[in-house]
Task: structure prediction
Amino acid sequence: MRQRPRGRLTLPFVKASPEAQLRLLELADLDTELGRLDHRRRTLPENAELDQLAERAAKIRDAMTIADTDLADLDRDLSRAEKDVEQVTSRIGRDNERLNAGQVSNARELESLQSEVASLRKRQGDLEEVVLDLMERREAAQALRDGAGTEAENVGADVAAATSRRDAALSEIDEQAAKATAARAAVLADVPAELLALYDKIRATSGGRAAAELRRGQCGGCREMLSTVELNEVRSAAPDEVVRHEECRRILVRTADSGL
Result:
């Protein structure tokens, strides 16, 4: 490679016909398009929406699990409380039968039995209050569970809709990418291996467009105007000599609009 003063053009020992160099502009356009499509694929708004919906769905599942656990605990406590009420009620019934049948003649035993019935009735009232409280709590827990279930269905519908939109967008992107890839393959057939190797190397190191048009004295890549010295150097370069802009390192492709 010839040594040039800083700020001037770099002229590597790569030669290619003007037609092949022009094909680099098409290749760069196609690579830019493929990069745009890849970026669009990775940044589809539906992807972020689906991530948010996944977080919501996870929280809803947790809420449903908690609600189901609460309901199971309440059902168990309610069943136990109802059995306690049933036992007390049954015992009150038996005591009342004895009282009503006149089976107790001893005054002290009668007083004791009546006292027991009164105590059992109080116990029955307390247990019924417990049952009522448990039933109210269960109703509230069931409402929460039903609400979580409804929200889960809504989120599921939103996920289905977002997934459908995402898949449609991906299908469109894939179709465009396939066309651009096919066009790129056709262009590559007209680009010499040495020129393509230089193009790929620049593209790999710069992470962007590797070839740009020199248009009216301006680099189409970095948008910098070439100096008079640089333009004179381009004018003096042979048509098949590949030139690069020292400022951005891109391959400069000369066209009828280069201003030379």
Notes: Confidence is low (pLDDT under 50) at residues 1-7.
